[in-house]
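Holo prediction. Input below; ligand is manganese (II) ion.
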Amino acid sequence: MRPGQFHCYRDVLNDVRETPPFKGKIGGTGPLDVDFKINVSIDKIILENLNITFGGHSKPKNCTALQKIAIIIPFRNRELHLTYWLFYMHPFLQKQQGDYGIYVVEQHGQSMFNRAKLMNIGYTEAVKDYDYNCFIFSDVDIIPMNLKNLYRCSKYPKHMAHSLDKFNFRLPYKTLFGGIVAFTKEQYLNINGFSNSFWGWGGEDDELYQRVVAAGMIIERAPQNISKAKMMTHMRDPGNERNQKNVPLISKAKFKMHEDGLSSLEYLLISFTRHRLYTKITVDIGKPDDSVKHSLGGSV
Ligand code: UDH
Ligand code: MN
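Structure of the complex:
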């Protein structure tokens, strides 16, 4: 911290819930009007966020942030959703005095989507890029509706998408841990990240919850009234069909977590490009059979 600088307001690692809501000049308070019908364009967002440096980084000017936050977004073919996300989230994160960078991890090709593996890749690439200590893994289509919903890490892994318009702002089941989750570096390493074995839609978030529990942690959720968020409505994407075969993997988390995750992550980096509003990481992650081949010890 430079002499004369102060820690940012509301930014004490492990204790974000204790601090009071924003006051005075630091951004706004309370609800945001999130609307997915308005016109948005990348050029307009750039003009409205001139403080952002290439790769989609920003840090507060008048204080030193304790948390350095990498936001990891799994991605394929959702350009419009990403544009809305950037439109709402850059101002949001700056108002929250975030020292943050945005990483959009794009799965190359047509093979079955693997959201969880993209998260692990985002983590792995982000730690090489900057001294991050907090990782927020977010779907591209969910926008918080209240500035008090802090994009920060906490004492325990934090679930940040428990109050979605899609579910009438209620938690559909207690162990839901999808959409947006926040982990400190330590917490994420502690569970060896996500499983790499979930291809297609579903289950990887439930398995992540099991890892957290198996590692002796609990999950945190901010109060429901400040955690409201909107999800853009969409159809299921081609190449991300529901995979019923994933279900049995969930209960095995406890036994598999140390061999399936960050420690076993394999991918081919196709490109790492700093765009004006985000860093795009395009990767070839293989296809479901590849991992079977590996576990059988090479070529089959
Ligand atoms: N994602 C992509 N591209 C894809 C698939 C998924 O970018 O082709 C990413 C994106 O960040 C998305 C996230 O993965 O927000 C999760 O996928 P999802 O949004 O499809 O998951 P969700 O649970 O949708 O929201 C389930 C299917 C909705 C069917 C609704 C029918 N009424
Ligand atoms: Mn969605």
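Residues 12-27, 292-300 have pLDDT under 50 and may be disordered. That is the main takeaway for now.
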